[in-house]
Design brief:
binds zinc ion; alpha+beta; 4 helices; 3-stranded mixed sheet
Length: 217
């Protein structure tokens, strides 16, 4: 088994440039009610970005960019030089042995302390209504409302990449930075990206190498 030598920690802030619909479940499907609510921290009640959503987004960006998705399934090749599998974990195909686990951990992104303070004083959210058009009859049907986290909200994001002996960590980090730039420039977070939701800005990206042998309490 290859030795785990170090980790690369990447920290940055995500600012919503548009209202964003993140995770969350419906509050009921009654007509006129809010169908979709953002996912919230159970204690603070503040909306947050689940690490799994961000991780899934970065993975799907790289898979699309490199043409790695087959019939909509995530890449399962498990090859060392794959831009996706060593970092995100090879997708497990039923009936086949797993081909390597994920090196990347993406933590849940909570509000920055500054934005949390602002939010506490004024817990804003916005409601966006969308019509689902009945294509056969050509009329708007079943208006849906969804609660979005408004533009201007800021989250602290953190990702940690485990690096094993023989890994090309520079290449892995390069792919992650590429995916983040694609997300910022031409993609979006959460649902409804093609309909004016989820554009983000990334600020203050820092990268730190942590040698395991240097760590002590
Ligand atoms: Zn792969």
């Amino acid at each position: 088994m290859a030795k785990w030598t170090h980790a690369v920690e990447m920290k940055f802030e995500i600012e919503l440039a548009e209202g964003t619909r993140i995770g969350g479940a419906g509050a009921g499907l009654d007509i006129g009610g809010v169908d979709l609510l953002p996912i919230r921290d159970p204690v603070s009640r503040e909306p947050y970005l689940p690490g799994s959503s961000l991780k899934g987004k970065l993975r799907s960006i790289l898979e699309k960019e490199h043409g790695l998705s087959t019939n909509g399934s995530p890449c399962s090749c498990g090859q060392k030089d794959c831009p996706v599998c060593p970092v995100f974990g090879a997708h497990i195909v039923p009936g086949k042995p797993p081909r390597g686990s994920a090196r990347l951990t993406v933590r849940d992104a909570h509000f920055t302390p500054e934005y949390a303070k602002q939010y506490k004083d004024n817990p804003v959210s916005e409601t966006k209504m969308e019509n689902i058009v009945d294509r056969i009859r050509g009329v708007a049907d079943k208006p849906r409302t969804q609660e979005r986290v408004p533009a201007g909200a800021r989250f602290r994001a953190e990702m940690v990449l485990k690096v094993f002996e023989g890994d090309d960590d520079r290449k892995m980090v390069k792919h992650l930075r590429n995916a983040l730039a694609i997300l910022e420039e031409v993609d979006s977070l959460g649902a409804g990206g093609s309909r004016g939701s989820g554009r983000i800005k990334i600020h203050n990206l820092t990268e730190k190498k942590i040698a395991l042998a240097d760590l002590t309490l």
